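Entry type: protein chain
Record version: 2
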Amino acid sequence: MTGLFIGAVLISFSSVMVRLSDVPPDVVGFYRLFVGGLGMAAFLWRMGRLSRMNLHVWGWGLLAALFFAGDFFFWHRSIGLVGPGLATMLANFQVIVLAGVSVFLMREGVSKPLLAAIPLALVGLYLMVGVSWQDFTPEYRLGVSYGLFTALFYALYLLSLKVSLNRAEADPLAMACAVALLTGLLLGGLSAAEGESFAIPNLRTLAALATLALVCHAVGWYLITRGMQRVRTSLVGLILLLQPSLSFVWDILFFAKPVNPVEISGVVLALAAIYMGSLGGSRPAKAKKG
């Protein structure tokens, strides 16, 4: 449980590192995922499991990587427009998207926590951004929209990852490594096509990118992947709520994000809905965005 807790804390700094990086959003994604993927490959090599990254894993991993690239495309832009805290909260509405997919497309049973989570999430979303919508700048509204698109693509990524793992019968860490490397290459290719520079302008950017890739992504997700196998589902969901919660706190502490009681109430309701949604089915709780 200690490893899971530490992993959740580490990935809560992901959005902060993105904000501190003085490079374009897709370049951040390239460095985070490709270098982080290399870090995961190092873990696999250390454990003698690198051979599990076979052609089957790479082939099915590409499916998940396509949606993961869309996830990071929107999330990094949302961070730049609305800040790390709100962008991460909105991204974690993927739990509610997954719930809707399970009910309406996959015809799975509806549990009481799931039934309660969906309206609770909508009320929380309204309190966070709906009440003051008319007062927001066009850029801020765009950032909110990007955050919700992030939740959609993140949910599609998780669904495709589940399919890929089942079809490839793969080691979860090997699949996560392949997906990270492939997603990094996709974002890197997009950056190159847009003529963006991969140059790292200063030491602060280098430190932020290195921390994001090696500490937040590689170490954080390794600890979470290992810890989820040893802790009961309800406790996993509760511990992983640290990630969006702390991201919101870091936004206030590090970037002086203004907050009001209505917005805080929305955050609390959203967190409750995310937790309840993670318990809505018999499957293991989904990891939160980071």
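Comment: The two ends are 19 Å apart (CA to CA).
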